[in-house]
Write a structure and sequence with these properties.
- There is one protein chain.
- By secondary structure, the protein is mainly α.
- It has a single domain, classed as MetI-like fold (Orthogonal Bundle).
- About 75% of the residues lie in helices and about 0% in strands.
- It is built from 13 helices and no strands.
- Helix 1 packs across helix 4 and helix 10 runs antiparallel to helix 13.
- The longest helix is centred in the middle third of the chain and has 35 residues.
- The two termini are about 15 Å apart.
- The mean pLDDT is about 80.
- It is found in: Cell membrane.
- Its main location: membrane.
- This is ABC transporter permease.
- It holds the Pfam family BPD_transp_1_N.
Length: about 300
């Protein structure tokens, strides 16, 4: 049953990627102006070059064939040339994607570790007041405001701010995200602690620390679904945070592409974000299936 669910999730993701990229292409075709201007920028080109580009892109073919050709170009990295950076679109977008992926993974891991530690202190050690103050403070301001606050604190303490580096955006996202995700984890753990098997473990004399770890195992599948969703949002563009600290990720790239009307990069950005969100949803589903014993048929 588990492998069937995994295969079903993979097939659903592949179908979603194909539909999404086809939709992006159709939307690009619907933009004002001809497709070559939208896909390759506004630089003037001769009629001969235009016809050659139309032939290479398959724009002189029926629409369904154009979509098939576009799928091939998407999966081979032939996304055109950026009019602002004067580089291949795939190279520009992929570099920003890697930077955002590093930031998203690091922020997700650190936020999860902090949330688990706070939950452990609250539910296993009894430090409920200590573990509630920081999450409440964290959720009191959005990430953009926390970025400004942390920048002011760093300047006041004369700590050098490495604009373009990952340290400050990472700290901002961890501080801003801990409040929400701690409450999610706390709610899941409290629900798990109310299950009959926990009472059975207590009756057997199992320590509260071991019970907490077992409850954490049952809470993690749902918690990870939420964290993967946030990871996708960070990759899609933590724009305010990245712009504040000049971090070269997808958020900053989107702002630059919009301001420079770099259509090829905008389309490439949309494509890679759509594919990434689909893949993250698939990975989240597979992890949920693997980690949840009930979905694997384990009692």
């Amino acid at each position: 049953m588990m492998w069937w669910l995994i295969a079903k999730s993979i097939a659903k993701t592949l179908t979603l990627i194909l539909l999404t990229t086809a939709t992006i292409y159709l939307v690009a075709r619907a933009f004002p102006g001809d497709p070559i201007t939208v896909l390759y920028g506004e630089q003037p080109i001769s009629d001969e070059v235009r016809k050659a580009v139309e032939s290479r892109l398959g724009l002189d073919k029926p629409l369904y064939l154009q979509i098939l050709i576009y799928w091939r170009r998407v999966f081979t990295g032939d996304w055109g040339v950026s009019t602002f950076f004067a580089k291949p679109v795939f190279q520009v977008v992929f570099q920003s994607f890697i930077n955002s992926l590093k930031l998203a993974v690091s922020a997700t891991v650190l936020t999860t570790l902090v949330c688990v530690l706070l939950a452990y202190l609250s539910m296993a050690k009894g430090f409920k007041m200590l573990s509630s103050v920081f999450p409440t403070l964290s959720s009191s301001m959005p990430a953009a405001v926390w970025g400004v606050v942390l920048m002011v604190f760093a300047a006041y303490l004369k700590i050098p701010i490495g604009f373009g580096s990952m340290s400050m955006p990472l700290l901002t996202l961890v501080v801003a995200g801990t409040g929400v995700f701690y409450r999610i984890l706390q709610s899941l753990l409290e629900k798990t602690f109310s299950e009959p098997f926990v009472e059975m473990y207590k009756a057997f004399g199992m320590s509260i620390e071991k019970i907490f770890l077992k409850a954490l195992r049952y809470a993690m599948p749902v918690y990870l679904t939420a964290t993967f969703y946030r990871m996708g949002l960070i990759i899609a563009g933590a724009m305010a945070t990245e712009v504040i600290f000049a971090y070269p990720g997808m958020g900053l790239l989107l702002v630059q592409a919009f301001s420079s009307r770099d259509y090829p990069v905008l389309i490439g950005w949309t494509t890679i974000v759509s594919v990434t969100l689909s893949v993250l949803n698939m990975v989240s589903d597979i992890l949920h299936i693997y980690m949840d014993p009930r979905l694997r048929g384990v009692v």
